[in-house]
Design a protein that fits this description.
The complex is a heterodimer of chains A (444) and B (145). Chain A is an alpha/beta fold and 444 residues long. Chain A folds into two domains: 337 residues, ANL, N-terminal domain (Rossmann fold), CATH 3.40.50.12780; 98 residues, GMP Synthetase, Chain A, domain 3, CATH 3.30.300.30. Chain A contains ten helices and 22 strands. Chain A is globular and about 70 Å long. The two termini of chain A are 36 Å apart. The N terminus of chain A is likely disordered. The radius of gyration of chain B is 16 Å and the shape is globular. Chain B has two domains: 68 residues, VC0802-like (2-Layer Sandwich), CATH 3.30.2130.10; 70 residues, 2-Layer Sandwich (VC0802-like). In chain B, strands 1, 2, 3, 4, 5, 6 and 7 form a seven-stranded antiparallel beta sheet that branches. Chain B is built from five helices and seven strands; from the N terminus they run E-H-E-E-H-E-H-E-E-H-E-H. Chain B is an alpha+beta fold and 145 residues long. Classes of the chains: A alpha/beta (444), B alpha+beta (145). Chains A and B meet through helix 10 and strand 21 of A and strand 1, strand 3 and strand 4 of B.
């Protein structure tokens, strides 16, 4: 094994990374044992899963090999919504030590649960994530992921502590304070969304701080798609090595997959999260190397096992050996999704939510369009709404009130502030068939 | 005693004002006056035309959302203090003006004030009681050949 690459920056090996290097046969042995256990657990404690298994005439005994996972029913995002808030829990609340939530499709959040063991696994995979990104004991990590219901902040926090790094729990926002901390605390690593970091670089330059002159050497970025061009920009402008990490609340939060020093795909921590790629149309499994929708099964989750969860993220599995020596398979960086969910500043927004808000205010659905841009590194969302006879008035004040009500309704349902623009009737392009509701000009 | 005013929604960007005006001009409809209220983002074009029904139809057919509002026209002598006198009357009656605009007639020494009230009828009573001249559509348009 190429131990020198395990923790390239520090040269030290952290035992938390040991599972990254399991021989393939041993890894599959662990995966099968855990898969059988988690299927048994979900079957015993999650009525929805049991019902679906029964409908297919399956019992947990159907899992004789890893390939048998293809027999199991899928779980989709709406299952979490339909069973809101606690319907998919497999543990009694007495064993649940943490709840998190993320936005769903109808304004109701999706709630996820963790037992003590789940929190420990989460800390482990996030420690492995940071180790793969070259962090080690002695590093000072500025954690600018949001703390709270969002899984990013606390997920990164526990992981960095488990690795032995020093965490500054600065949370998201307040860019001036972020810059002060970066400058004064000897910060060597920072994690946040990539778009926020680009903003931070620009703001720092405005106040005369050149990040390249600071001890900062590693950036760990996730929670939204970003491009290689953006990485090149970040690395050049901030003098850091920028790593992409992947995760989702439904599975655990951040910590599902991470890049390593090679930066050629993200290693999936597949001893805990079993990846498959399926054709999103036919739902048939696809072989490694073929692009399709990523499906994940939590192999060790206790409070909320997810069996064959359809992530809607489009990628492919890279099974060839990695230069870093990790035996974990990789996924290619994720650039798009198979559904219409928009991720903006780490918040999931669905056009259906915007529609619901417009409908609530106007009574009927006006023609509208969502425009995504990236200004000074920050994602911006604008919603253009055609003025209808129902809301139009000869008074400026009345129209401003309509605009404010629409913006408030969207903020209330989606949890995000949008630039709401009233536009003239018939100015938004009509399309035949499925309307093109989202114009993404972010050039990710 | 009330006038029909047409209002149109316009985006605040170059070229938007011309399109509706061209549409009604192409139909041979003459404008009596107009006013434009705007914010950074959008504007409201308000039109007074004799053939308001036809103008409304033309504009709606061309895709605009047209709002019809009753406004009140008052004529005053075209000299300093003409407007101030009317405003004093309205103020002392506690009447709130949503918005107003004014223009001078080509012939004669009159200026016409157009007022938008939330409720025009009590306002007309107040104006008349004060001895002011509320102009109806027929009289107003008689100034225009």
């Amino acid at each position: 094994m190429q131990t020198e690459l395990w923790n390239d920056a520090a040269g030290g090996f952290h035992p938390v990374s040991a599972p990254d290097f399991l021989p393939e046969a041993r890894l599959q042995e662990v995966q099968l044992r855990r898969l059988r256990a988690v299927v048994g657990r979900a079957y015993a404690h999650v009525p929805l899963f049991r019902q679906r298994m029964d409908d297919l005439g399956l019992t947990p005994d159907a899992i004789g090999s890893l390939a048998d996972i293809a027999k199991l029913p899928f779980t989709v995002k709406t299952d979490l919504r339909d069973t809101y808030p606690f319907g998919l829990f497999a543990s009694p609340m007495g064993d649940v030590v943490r709840l998190h939530a993320s936005s769903g499709t109808t304004g109701k959040p999706i709630v996820v649960a963790y037992t003590r063991e789940d929190v420990d696994v989460w800390a482990e995979v996030m420690a492995r994530t940071f180790a793969a990104c070259g962090l080690h004991r002695g590093d000072i990590l500025q954690n600018a992921f949001g703390y709270g219901l969002f899984t990013g902040g606390l997920g990164a926090h526990y992981g960095a502590e488990a690795l032995g790094a020093t965490v500054i729990p600065v949370s998201g926002g307040n860019t001036e304070r972020q810059i002060m901390v970066l400058k004064d605390f000897g910060v060597s690593a920072l994690c946040c969304t990539p778009s926020y970091f680009v903003h931070l670089i620009e703001r720092a330059r405005e106040v005369g701080v050149d990040l390249r002159e600071l001890p900062l050497r590693v950036g760990v970025f996730g929670a939204e798609p970003w491009s290689d061009a953006m990485r090149a920009h970040i690395e050049a402008e901030a003098g850091v090595k920028a790593y992409d990490i992947y995760g989702l609340s439904e599975i655990i939060g951040p910590g599902v997959a991470s890049e390593c020093a090679a930066q050629e795909g993200l290693h999936v921590f597949e001893d805990h999260f079993y990846p498959e790629i399926i054709d999103p149309e036919t739902c048939r499994p696809l072989p490694d190397g073929t692009e399709g929708e990523l499906v994940l099964t939590t192999l060790s989750k206790k409070a909320m096992p997810m069996i064959r969860y359809r992530t809607r993220d489009i990628t492919r599995i890279i099974s060839e050996p990695c230069a870093c020596g990790r035996s974990l398979r990789r996924i290619r960086r994720i650039g798009r999704r198979s559904d219409d969910m928009i991720i903006i500043r780490g918040v999931n927004v669905f056009p259906s939510q915007i529609e619901a808000a417009l409908l609530e205010v106007e009574g009927t659905l006006p023609h509208y369009q969502i425009i995504l841009t990236r200004e000074r590194g920050l994602d911006q969302i604008a919603v253009e709404v055609e003025v209808t006879a129902e809301v139009f008035s000869d008074k400026i004040r009345a129209l401003e009130a309509v605009r404010a009500r629409l913006a408030q309704a969207i903020e209330h349902i989606c949890g995000i502030r949008v630039d709401l623009r009233l536009v003239e009737p018939r100015t938004i392009a009509r399309s035949e068939g499925k309307a093109r509701r989202v114009i993404d000009q972010r050039n990710i | 005693m009330k006038l029909q005013q047409l209002s149109l929604f316009l985006e605040n960007r170059p070229g938007r004002l011309g399109a509706p005006l061209e549409a009604i001009a192409a139909e041979g409809i003459n404008l009596m006056t107009l006013s434009l209220a705007d914010t950074a983002q959008f504007g409201i074009l308000r039109l007074i035309v004799r053939e308001w029904e036809r103008a409304k139809q033309v504009l709606e057919h061309a895709g605009w959302v047209v709002n019809l509002t009753e406004v009140v026209a008052v004529d005053v002598p075209d000299r300093p203090g003409g407007l101030a006198e009317v405003l004093r009357v309205l103020e002392s009656a506690g009447l709130n003006i949503e918005y107003m605009y004014a223009f001078s007639l080509r012939r004669g020494d009159k200026a016409i004030l157009i007022f938008r009230f939330e409720d025009p009828d009590p306002a007309i009573d107040v104006l008349k009681t004060a001895g002011l001249h509320v102009v109806d559509a027929e009289e107003l348009f008689s100034h225009f050949p």
